[in-house]
Amino acid sequence: MDYLTMSECIQLSFAVCRIGIYTCFRALCCKGPPPPRPEYDLVCIGLTGSGKTSLLSQLCGESPENIVSTTGFSIKAVPFQNAILNVKELGGADNIRKYWSRYYQGSQGVIFVLDSASSEDDLETARNELHSALQHPQLCTLPFLILANHQDKPAARSVQEIKKYFELEHLHVENAGSLNPAPWMIWKQ
């Protein structure tokens, strides 16, 4: 049998101590990387000029200067403390709206932005687009956030006027039996 020399015993003892101290330090001080934040995929729709791009830029902490209306679509990751929202913003021009449904797949929620100070014609178009989205098979069971934007403008309609004009009370009753008893929520900005 080979016996360890005194110096080998000391080296072995120090090595065991280092491993023990390192293990204790890791357990007490370093809890490892934080758990990943859940990610949710949303689609953001609304007519051109309703404020979709401005809203997302503001949520991402970007400068409000030099904002250009979205042509086609863009994707932004909006980080929050407990989650990350991956938002597909779809342009609102006439020639783009017909392609919106191609981007709905995989969405877990919808943000519909409307200009509460827009003309009657634009408001009518927005109402038709909202109703179309609410009835779309890929969106009808998802939560909707309807953002009544541009509330600071003199011609802005109140939330009650928007609810009435967009016939939202009727939609709420109609969808009350679905998985999501409150399929929409209006938020004014």
TrEMBL record:
Molecular function (GO) terms listed? GTP binding; GTPase activity; metal ion binding
Protein name (database record): ADP-ribosylation factor-like protein 15
Record's InterPro entries?
A: ARL15 (IPR042292), P-loop_NTPase (IPR027417), Small_GTPase_ARF/SAR (IPR006689)
The protein's matches in PANTHER family, at most eight in alphabetical order, are given as: ADP-RIBOSYLATION FACTOR-LIKE PROTEIN 15
Q: Where does GTP bind?
A: G46, L47, T48, G49, S50, G51, K52, T53, G92, N149, H150, Q151, D152
SUPFAM superfamilies according to UniProt: P-loop containing nucleoside triphosphate hydrolases
The residues that hold Mg(2+) are T53, T70
Q: List residues traversing the bilayer.
A: none
Keywords linked to the UniProt accession = GTP-binding, Magnesium, Metal-binding, Nucleotide-binding
Q: Which domain of life is it from?
A: Eukaryota
Family the UniProt entry places it in: Belongs to the small GTPase superfamily. Arf family.
